[in-house]
Predict the structure of MATE family efflux transporter.
Amino acid sequence: MKTTELDVLKDPISKLFRGYAIPGIVASLSMCLYGIINGIILGRFVGPNALAAVNMASPIFNIISCIGILIAIGGNTLTAISLGEQNKRKANHYFNNAFYTLFMITVVIFIMVVFFPHVLARIVGANSVLFPMVVDYIRTFGVFVVPVIFNILLGISLQSIGKPQLYMVGNLLSVVLNIILDLILICVFDMGITGAALASGISATVVFILFFSKFISKDSFLRVGRWKVELKAIGRMIYNGSSEAITQFSAGFSFMIFNWILITKFGETGVSSFAVVQYISLVVNAVIMGMSRGLGAISSVNYGAKEYGRITELIAVAIKIVTLVGVVCTAILILFKSPFISLFVKDNLQVMTTSSEIITFYSFNFIFVGANIIINALYTAINNPKISAILAILRYVLLIGNFFILPLMFGNIGLWLSFVVAEIICVVVSYVCLKKTMQKWSLN
């Protein structure tokens, strides 16, 4: 398939890797940069409790975004495979079914987060201190939930039609707007956590307008047009995207449980400390997620064309790179954890001490998490959500189990090691599945 930017079926894997993975990584890193700066602004100008409140509200939006991911990735897998089969009509059919189905779902989500934020704040376990801030953040950011969720579908679709650079530009624009609005709304107008939510929502809306304009253009490879409803296609999208949705839901659910444990054992200090660690870890997660989203589009198109050797080469390169990134980032975090923590927290020795202890053990998680995410995303991209879902469920079942078992054996250290142990076990299982899949491809 010849796209306007890159030839996914013919260009060398090294060129595609640079063309897709690097823009994906840059886009994710730009969002990560915003997350870090946002954390610094909140921590220093509003206080550690603001960090804790955002950290408690985040699982809600992680779980909500799993709906967007369910349709976006599930639909885009079918769209990209159709593009690999040189069937533009079918690709547009799948794209429009995904677009309008997602719109209907997001309207329901909008009503839920805007009119019932108190219920959601209670679900995540916010105590009396954090409750008002968590409610404000959920309600304010919830106003923009439609463009936020649609940016997932439109961003992934841009990659499938050979425009990963535009996806990158959109994310960079979002970051610049976010930072500017944060400085204005939080530092100048003293709007606190509400200002942070407004900044994120407004910037997401601007990017949505940019992305959406490309899919109503007459010369676009994929266009928003008439919706010919096909329930079977929607069912296939849900099935194909289920593994990624399970991953997102499980991540949000497990962090919700983790926050419950932290606030029970350590109070606001524990949640604030882990929030600092999460902001710092955004860099590693951004590299991994940016790479996996970009490479997923390449894998789907090549799978549709039965170019299995190209997929094998691509995944081998990706796993080596994310593992190397994980090792380097683990070393950097352990060696320079104090300066990093001091960026977010000032004059709170308890939060700084707890954050330092968490980083010492939690950071080893980065060595293994990249391979798990890449392999999991591959199975979604090649229309095998069953294995992808099994791996995703295993990963978070192990994680939640570790939250309760390891502290009994190792105390607080066991709690911080829960993430590392879950990733190590899961990466072994993932490699076994990947080896069997590649052996099967070699016979075709």
User: Anything to note?
Assistant: The chain has one domain: 13-442.
